[in-house]
Amino acid sequence: MVNSDGQGSGSDQYSTLSAEHRNELEVKRSRFITVLRRVETEDDARSLVADLRKEFHDARHHCSAFIIGADRTVQRSNDDGEPSGTAGAPMLEALVRRGTAAGVADLSDVCAVVVRYFGGILLGAGGLVRAYSDSVSSALQTAPLVQRRLMQLFTIELAHDQAGRLENELRADGIQIVSNDYSVSGVELTVALPAGEPAAGFPHRLASLTGGRSRPEPSGCRWTDLS
What we know:
The protein is α+β, with helices and mostly antiparallel strands. Strand 10 and strand 11 (about 185-195) form a beta hairpin. It is built from six helices and twelve strands.
């Protein structure tokens, strides 16, 4: 992540899109149609560009920019025939600088494509930079966002008579229940907690809830959308 000054701030959570979003601006008769889609790989981003080339096959330009990864390490842009640096770069800058929390710019796993229909009036280099930047910024203002967080998974072995009460207690603590697998011998419960201090304190909490009869076994991590 980066703060508003562009400096790193860790990578245990970030913001992304919860759904595809579209927005349109008109600048001196040119139409700028922005499409934002959540992506996980560069191939996903290129697929969006390909989809929009088919949908808007008569448009002159399909410029793109995307950011991928919790640390936002993958950043790419493409001017698609516009003068170098007038489309993709300002679009990428709009994604990078989008503040989604107080003082934090942490948007990632997002691809932006701006489809341009030329309106017959030349905008000049400065005008193009502003138009492409404003197109993405305007779309982001109304885009549905969700916070993603790195969660630590724990597996807990329980007796049948413990399971129901413990699940209720954990949910009351705000702990996410991932799965509960029942068998003849007992119940295997998998839970998710934010990585870091909350997860580190979980063994003690579980011991107090079960009278020391159950111990959590770490079972990996996963990224989860927070509701």
